[in-house]
Design brief:
Number of helices: 12
Radius of gyration: 19 Å
CATH architecture of the domain at 5-152 and 180-214 and 269-277: 3-Layer(aba) Sandwich
Order of helices and strands: HHHHEHEHEEHEHHEEHHHEEE
Bound molecules: S-adenosylmethionine
Strand content: 15-25%
Largest sheet: 7 strands, mixed
Distance between the termini: 29 Å
Number of strands: 10
CATH class of the domain at 5-152 and 180-214 and 269-277: Alpha Beta
CATH superfamily of the domain at 5-152 and 180-214 and 269-277: Vaccinia Virus protein VP39
Strand order of the largest sheet: 3-2-1-4-5-10-6
């Protein structure tokens, strides 16, 4: 696959971080998986396409649900795909395949999939209408699309709490505004309808989800998770030891009220979006 500026981050430090924290992310997002698969309604003989599959947990779940069908996961990150293949082999999942591809422009076989899914993997497109149209062409007529994406970043404790705590000592860059390629690009429901409609999808439905992100079994784990996110690490890299210690302590204090017996749970509003291929 040709390397371009757009792919560098995921196919570099960000992807490596997601591999290192694979189990953490899967644990943090398991509630979103449940919502995603409720929306996707994968059938035993379905051919499933998982867009931005990362380390492939959702692809393997899709393959298990489509026991007589198959699942293909595509992603930009070679490191995450290597992890995805290793996990599938460990778990003996035979009907799953992973391919390094930019879903925006990849030449998918036309009409080859019954359902396309994504867990937080479709918000990073430079041209979302063209990208979703490309995904739609991979679906059979009336094929289904189901994905989860972030909603209402201003209400996201997952995003705001660490930034505010660390912000007393260092500026942690925002992860991208509404309507910009990045985690919040599909936060605006009108834009989601416009993008998917423009890409040739119909029956576009958005369901507001209010599942929390689970940052770890205790505050220590949550602290490690946040401090090792690439944009946080980068922001803190130049702090002197004393300031770093104060920032870390401020983050620990900020996370402590969110500790529950189920984990350190921070509100992270999302959409479950479903649609059909109009063709
Ligand atoms: C937030 S991560 C989610 C990963 C995975 N879906 C999960 O739930 O663990 C976003 C993923 O989308 C992938 N991605 C971003 N833009 C992409 C593109 N244009 N084509 C394919 N994958 C892409 C990234 O490499 C990354 O793995």
């Amino acid at each position: 696959m040709a390397e371009s500026a757009r792919t560098l981050d995921w196919n570099g430090a960000n992807g490596d971080h997601w591999v290192a924290y694979e189990d953490k992310y899967n644990a943090a997002m398991f509630r979103y998986s449940e919502r995603l698969f409720a929306g996707a309604d994968v059938q035993p003989d379905d051919r499933v396409l998982d867009v931005g599959c990362g380390c492939g947990q959702t692809t393997r779940v899709a393959a298990a649900l489509a026991a007589e069908g198959s699942a293909l996961g595509v992603d930009l990150s070679a490191a995450m795909l290597a992890q995805a293949r290793a996990r599938a082999a460990e778990e003996g999942v035979g009907n799953v395949r992973f391919e390094q591809a930019d879903a925006q422009v990849h030449d998918f076989a036309g009409g080859a999939y019954d359902v396309a899914i994504s867990r937080h993997g479709v918000m990073f497109f430079a041209d979302p209408v063209a990208a979703f149209a490309n995904v739609r062409r991979a679906l059979r007529p009336a094929g289904r699309l189901a994905f989860v994406c972030w909603r209402a970043p201003e209400e996201s404790e997952y995003s705001a709490v660490p930034r505010a705590a660390l912000g007393r000592y260092v500026t942690v860059p925002k992860s991208g505004g509404v309507n910009e390629p990045g985690p919040n690009s599909l936060a605006d429901p009108d834009r989601v309808r416009e993008v998917l409609g423009g890409a040739g999808f119909v029956d576009v439905r958005l369901e507001a989800e209010n599942e929390p992100m689970d940052l770890g079994a205790g505050v220590g784990e949550a602290l490690d998770f946040v401090l090792n996110r690439p944009h946080v690490r980068e922001a803190m890299a130049d702090l002197d030891g004393g300031t770093k210690a104060k920032a870390t302590e401020a983050l620990r204090e900020a996370l402590t009220p969110y500790a529950t017996p189920e984990g350190v749970l921070l509100r992270a509003p999302a959409w479950l979006v479903t649609a059909h291929n109009a063709a």
